[in-house]
């Protein structure tokens, strides 16, 4: 089955002298085949019209987290977004709109600079468990952090979060992706370190007002807000604001 | 796999049939290295992982690639580091050679027009699938060598678009040469190896020839006039302590 000719309106541009995106939307019309995803359409555009259209991708299987973009205004992985679904939501005769992630600095066309993620990752204390690496814990304990391990670091959640997108709190706020990482460390059955003070002060968890926009776009289906952020917020409250815990602490009953 | 079929094709593979097809999955064979150090015949150049050779024979045992690259990557890294430390003075690189490399690298950008590199890559892939694919014959392999000459001519005048920043068309233009080299090596070795073994199946020579081909490896190198040349080397007998671990079926080449 041929789906017919479809027009794509794709952002083409580079940063200007101030680093702000400078460019325009360019229309390309291509023939779609059955089973195509958005990334296939981009590859067709490159092969037919624009070999220099910049687009980052790697696995075409939703595993590497490289092909993040905004398709019809929504943050998605281009390789896991089916064209038949996109056409259903695109107005009749209208173009499919593809833009780079708007929260990160532009490199070119659909490619953005997400190096902030590497820097933020380095600020987090790694797992610190018993010296002897023959670690044993129950399946139930493993299940608890398993969900967080499925993060593919696509940064779609960070792209969507208003704390980043509207308020650019890149220095004060770790963003949903890193609360997922922090939760995986804090809830690890054998981890011996507490990162709660940093989560409150350096990673600014207080900025999150639980809008759940991050959870909505996560391609790995991680329940970011409910399972990672809220439990971390609760730990911060217990540690710093719970009167009984504070008395316990003063009396030396809790560390 | 369940997840991918479900998301991308709306097929529940636990209930419905799924389509299965062959694909290039791994390159068996690679740059010849010294098995103690992973150094190639070019002093100071090391290789490991899928790019190198030595571990897997005519077929790779599933799942053994990751262990390969971890073990031999470590060995390569250690020897590369210690050999780099011993260098007191780097060899002088002639200015003319540097200029030539820069010129070749920029050539696809300096043209105003030419074929889209994607078209050449697509034709190369299709040709290799059709003629050097799963079931091989002498006549198709010979045709493939001629086709590779034509593809090489086309690859020299491709136009990858403009701009040095994240330009996939430029990168593709620069890669085609290497893709054609590897394709030619595969074809040449497949043509000369008149038997079937592991991943190599010749319709005109359908059975393994343990007495001759079982004892030789193909080695391809560049001759004095810059052409690809194939030679054959024998390898030492398997040490007796390893022999004891193998089944008689695995020792047919040794007889
Ligand atoms: C679909 C699939 C499934 C697989 N499943 C398994 C499995 O289950 N188990 C298993 O053991 N193996 C598996 N393999 C094989 C295994 O994944 C690969 O053999 C292995 O990842 C190769 O690793 P490598 O580091 O040697 O090379 P690569 O991972 O290919 O790394 C090469 C690197 O070099 C970079 N590069 C290329 N050109 C340049 C250049 N000019 N300059 C600088 N950098 C460059 C590339 O970007 C890349 O990062 C699978 C392979 C495929 C394709
Ligand atoms: S729930 Fe919190 S982290 Fe997620 S998008 Fe909303 S404010 Fe950002
Ligand atoms: S949490 Fe989800 S959306 Fe965020 S980076 Fe990981 S996979 Fe992507
Ligand atoms: S290309 Fe890897 S996630 Fe899309």
Polypeptide structure, described:
The complex is a heterodimer of chains A (255) and B (255). By secondary structure, chain A is of the alpha+beta class. Chain A folds into two domains: 4-112, Beta-grasp domain (Ubiquitin-like (UB roll), Roll), CATH 3.10.20; 115-248, Fumarate Reductase Iron-sulfur Protein, Chain B, domain 2 (Orthogonal Bundle). Chain A is 36% helix and 17% strand. A five-stranded mixed sheet of chain A has the order 2-1-5-3-4. The longest helix of chain A has 17 residues, at 224-240. Chain B has helices spanning 2-9, 64-86, 95-110, 117-131, 138-155, 168-192, 240-243; strands at residues 135-136, 201-202, 216-222, 228-234. In chain B, helix 4 runs antiparallel to helix 5 (138-155). In chain B, strand 3 (216-222) and strand 4 form a beta hairpin. Chain B is built from seven helices and four strands, in the order ααααβααβββα. Chain B is mainly α. Chain B has a domain at 1-91. Chain A binds chain B through residues 14, 35, 37, 43, 46-48, 50-56, 61-62, 80, 82, 107-109, 111, and chain B through 3-4, 7-9, 116-119, 122, 159-163, 165-170, 172. The complex binds flavin-adenine dinucleotide, iron/sulfur cluster (2 copies) and FE2/S2 (inorganic) cluster (FES). One iron/sulfur cluster binds at residues 65, 151-157, 176-177, 180, 218-220, 222, 224 of chain A.
């Amino acid at each position: 089955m041929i789906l017919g000719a479809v027009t794509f309106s794709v952002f083409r541009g580079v940063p200007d002298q101030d680093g702000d995106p400078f460019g325009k939307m360019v229309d390309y019309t291509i023939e779609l085949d059955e089973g195509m995803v958005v990334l296939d359409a981009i590859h067709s555009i490159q092969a037919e019209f624009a070999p220099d259209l910049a687009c980052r991708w790697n696995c075409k299987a939703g595993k590497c987290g490289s092909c993040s973009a905004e398709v019809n205004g929504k943050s998605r992985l281009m390789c896991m977004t089916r064209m038949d679904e996109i056409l259903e939501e695109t107005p009749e005769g209208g173009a499919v709109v593809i833009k780079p992630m708007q929260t990160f600095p532009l490199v070119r066309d659909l490619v953005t600079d997400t190096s902030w993620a590497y820097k933020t990752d380095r600020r987090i204390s790694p797992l610190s468990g018993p010296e002897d690496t023959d670690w044993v814990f129950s399946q139930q304990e493993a299940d608890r952090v398993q969900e967080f391990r499925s993060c593919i670091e696509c940064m779609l959640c960070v792209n969507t979060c208003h704390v980043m997108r509207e308020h650019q709190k890149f220095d004060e706020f770790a963003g949903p992706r890193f609360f997922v990482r922090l939760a995986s460390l804090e809830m690890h059955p054998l981890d011996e370190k507490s990162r709660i003070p940093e989560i409150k002060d350096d990673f600014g968890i207080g900025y999150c007002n639980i809008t759940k926009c991050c959870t909505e776009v996560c391609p790995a289906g991680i329940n970011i807000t409910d399972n990672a952020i809220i439990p971390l917020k609760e730990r911060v409250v217990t540690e710093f604001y719970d009167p009984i815990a504070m008395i316990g602490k003063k009396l030396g009953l809790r560390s | 796999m369940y997840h991918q079929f479900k998301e991308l094709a709306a097929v529940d593979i636990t209930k419905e049939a799924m389509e299965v097809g062959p694909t290039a999955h791994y390159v068996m064979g690679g740059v010849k290295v010294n098995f103690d150090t992973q150094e190639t015949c070019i002093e100071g150049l090391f290789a490991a992982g899928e790019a190198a050779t030595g571990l897997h024979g005519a077929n790779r045992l599933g799942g053994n690639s990751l262990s390969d690259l971890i073990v031999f990557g470590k060995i390569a890294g250690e020897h590369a580091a210690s050999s780099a430390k011993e260098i007191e003075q780097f060899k002088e690189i002639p200015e003319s050679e540097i200029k030539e490399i820069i010129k070749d690298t920029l050539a696809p950008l300096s043209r105003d027009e030419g074929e889209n590199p994607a078209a050449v890559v697509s034709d190369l892939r299709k040709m290799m699938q059709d003629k050097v694919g799963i079931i091989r014959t002498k006549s198709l392999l010979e045709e493939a060598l001629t086709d590779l000459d034509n593809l090489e001519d086309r690859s020299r005048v491709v136009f990858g678009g403009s701009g040095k920043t994240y330009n996939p068309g430029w990168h593709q233009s620069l890669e085609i040469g290497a893709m054609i080299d590897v394709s030619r090596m595969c074809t040449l070795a497949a043509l000369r190896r008149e038997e079937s073994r592991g991943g190599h199946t010749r319709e005109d020579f359908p059975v393994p020839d343990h007495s001759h081909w079982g004892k030789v490896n193909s080695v391809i190198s560049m001759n004095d006039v810059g052409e690809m040349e194939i030679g054959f080397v024998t390898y030492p007998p398997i040490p007796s302590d390893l022999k004891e671990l193998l089944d008689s079926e695995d020792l047919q080449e040794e007889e």
